Amino acid sequence: MESLLSALQEKAQADLAAIRTRPELEAAKARLVGPNGELTALMKQMGSVPKEQRPALGKRINEAKALVQALLDAALQRVVDGEIAAQVGPAIDVSLPSPDAGPGTFHPLTQVREEMCRILRKVGFTVADGPEVETEYYCFDALNTPADHPARDAQDTFYLPRDAAFANVSKHRADERYLLRTHTSSVQIRTLLKGPPPIRIVSPGRVYRRDTTDATHSANFHQLECLYVDRNVTVRDLKALLDYIFTSLLGKDTKTRFRPHYFGYTEPSFEVDLSARHLPKVNKEWIEIGGCGMVDPIVLDGVGHDSRVWSGYAFGMGLERLAMLLYGIDDIRYFYQNDLRFLRQFA
Ligand code: DAH
Q1: What are the tens digits of pLDDT across the range 107-142?
Q2: What pairing do the DSSP bridges indicate for beta strands 220-230 and 311-318?
Q3: ω into residue 97 within 30 of 0, thus cis?
Q4: Residue 262 Cα, ligand 1 centroid: separation in angstroms?
Q5: 136-162 confidence digits (pLDDT tens)
Q6: If you take atom 12 of ligand 1, which residue's CA is the nearest one?
Q7: How far, in Å, from the CA of 4 to the mean position of ligand 1?
């Protein structure tokens, strides 16, 4: 009997040490202490042992029982520990960089566009939208740009095929051609045709030109157009607004100046220069930023607003140019490459 018990203990020790899963543990338990288990069978033999040997043997069996139970408890603990470890996964090194993608951010052009619209809303401008596919009338004719103007040349403008149709872009004349707008000034006309002044709109958006891409040119880029039409609007109002928006965006040390220029839709017309030496990478005094002027009476009368009653100013500028100035970016192509190393700098 003693040798049977010792053998059973030894075997139980070896078997239980190898156990990893609950089914294995349950099977081992049944094999040892279940109703038909090996230890149970030995205990049942007590009855056939001579009376005087029973107390010693009883003690010995109890020892074996306790040992087997302790082995089972230890095996259960190992199984439970294994299950928890499997759920938790490998240990985490908290000193490593987070694998999560950081929070998103707005593209620098979006940031500048939104900031400009915010600045202009503060002084009464509302945001107007216009189509990127335009017609010759809205982009050129109504803006007093004659048919032989170089900007209308197929070398500068992307024209769509004559049979192209856009149900959502209204034509002024049935025979005019569709094109990709070369400037946001077309929104001036669409707005003026919607109703009588006073009108005060800002219209940011994408424009297209047949330019060869380099550090300062891109076949599509963004502009921001402003139009104000009311009674007795003067060049002073225009200059004051430009001073206000550029000092708001670029800082109080920013200065603006006008240089006489020609645009078909304004009279007089100016090019606007900025002086902002405090900005990064600005290494010359005056930087051209856009065009402006007093809305030409021909334009106002052309859309049915009496130019003897109404006057106004308009200006347009490049958003990329502005963003490059503000952030010290020296190549326009960075805006369109979606390189996260570039974009993350504006988070
Ligand atoms: N449309 C001009 C351009 O793309 C910019 C411009 C000049 C806009 C004069 C205006 C303006 O509103 O009055 O270069």
Answers
A1: 999 999 999 999 999 999 999 999 999 999 999 999
A2: antiparallel
A3: no
A4: 10
A5: 999 999 999 998 988 888 889 999 999
A6: 315
A7: 105
Taking the CA of residue 188 as reference, the ligand 1 atom at the shortest distance is: 12
β partners of residue 231: none
Q: If DSSP codes are grouped into helix, strand and coil, which group holds residue 8? A: helix
Give the H or E element holding residue 175. Answer: none
Whether ligand 1 lies within 6 angstroms of the CB of 238 is answered as: no
Nearest Cα to 61, choosing from 47, 73, 75, 72?
47
Assess whether the C-beta atom of 186 lies below 6 angstroms from ligand 1: no
Ligand 1 centroid, distance to 250 Cα (angstroms):
21
- Nearest alpha carbon, ligand 1 atom 4: 183
- How far is residue 188 from each of residues 152, 179, 301, measured CA to CA in Å? 18, 17, 13
Q: Which of 275, 288, 289, 293 is nearest to 317 (CA)?
A: 289
Rounded Cα distance between 341 and 138, Å, is 40
With a cut of 90, say whether residue 54 has pLDDT above it. no
The whole model's pTM is what? 0.72
**Contact (CB, 8 A) for 332 and 324:** yes
Q: Is 184 close to ligand 1, i.e. is its CB under 6 Å away?
A: no
Ligand 1 within 6 A of CB of 183: yes
